[in-house]
Amino acid sequence: MTTHHTTHQAGHPTAHHAGPGPGHHCGHRTEDLDWAAIGDQLERSARVRTPFLEGAADWLAATADGEVRRVLDVGSGPGVASLVLARRFPRAGVVAVDAAPGLLARAAGLAAGEGLAGRVTTHRADLPDGLEPLGAADLIWAGQVVHHLGDQTAALAAIGRSLRPGGLLAVVEGGLGPRFLPRDIGMGRPGLQARLEAGMENVFAAMRAGLPGSVAVTEDWPALFTAAGLTPAGSRTFLVDAPAPLDDLGRGYAYDRLNRAREGLADVLPADDLEVLDRLLDEESEAGVRKRADVFCLEALTVHVGRRV
Ligand SMILES: C[S@@+](CC[C@H](N)C(=O)[O-])C[C@H]1O[C@@H](n2cnc3c(N)ncnc32)[C@H](O)[C@@H]1O
């Protein structure tokens, strides 16, 4: 059997690398994770979610008041969303903002590769600070980064201050985590993914509790916008719906997510579930997610929008 969670994640801070609960999608610890080290994974997940990014960008274009000339993609990671936004708003300059220089370098490389280097630039910042030099934006996209900040309300307020009056802040949070497998996969007890999701809720909660300055809030995003001085302007959910048989990119995403769950839940999952996960993560096995025929990707991502008055 090919080893997976050791070779694939070599050099990564394993205990901090657990995957998401159903609505969180991520579950990494922020303060001590080397985000750049998982650049490949971040790029794969963003690429698989391209239909979501494009649908959300269309909706934002229809929701925006006035011209969109300046866009910030905060917590951009490798910048896949920055590119989608640059294509959707062809008159806009887009700034990919992240704390990890390695990911900004990736974003710059992707932009250059698509001939967008003139319109997609990068800026290093430790959110929620560091946006001031960028000036007022018409649109700010925050994809699954706010939940990595200790005080989410204060973060929304700080990020919102970089909007021009009437500008939009789009926050990707919540939704439904990805499903890759049928309920019964012909080995082990049916319902493995539901059990993994339940386990990862605890990992996510521990991640949040461990953040510097962590503040527990009800995850009611429109209410959080209001508390942060923004006006809620709608929430919409977009699907990633890639049926079986999945391509290699989608299989890579499935592998990444199951591998993170394997690591995050190694100490709490029952032995039979761990054994099934190991088979799913066996790169050579016909029963593994790299090869089996029934792997799909179904995920729902919610975008909450707030407007600066
Ligand atoms: C879960 S990834 C999301 C990446 C991308 N937005 C997406 O949706 O695919 C979170 C990103 O936020 C960045 N990040 C986390 N905490 C940050 C902080 N305090 N300041 C700036 N960037 C941060 C990480 O480097 C990482 O690229």
From TrEMBL:
This protein's name: Methyltransferase domain-containing protein
Entry keywords, A to Z: Methyltransferase, S-adenosyl-L-methionine, Transferase
Stretches the record annotates as Disordered: 1-30
GO molecular function (one): methyltransferase activity
SUPFAM superfamilies recorded: S-adenosyl-L-methionine-dependent methyltransferases (SSF53335)
Span of domain Methyltransferase: 71-167
CDD domains for the chain: AdoMet_MTases (cd02440)
A UniProt-annotated Pfam family: Methyltransf_25
Origin: domain of life: Bacteria
Gene3D superfamilies in UniProt: Vaccinia Virus protein VP39
InterPro entries named in the record: Methyltransf_25 (IPR041698), SAM-dependent_MTases_sf (IPR029063)
Biased composition (Low complexity): 1-19
Originating organism: Streptomyces albireticuli
Residues passing through the membrane, by range: none
Gene Ontology biological process: methylation
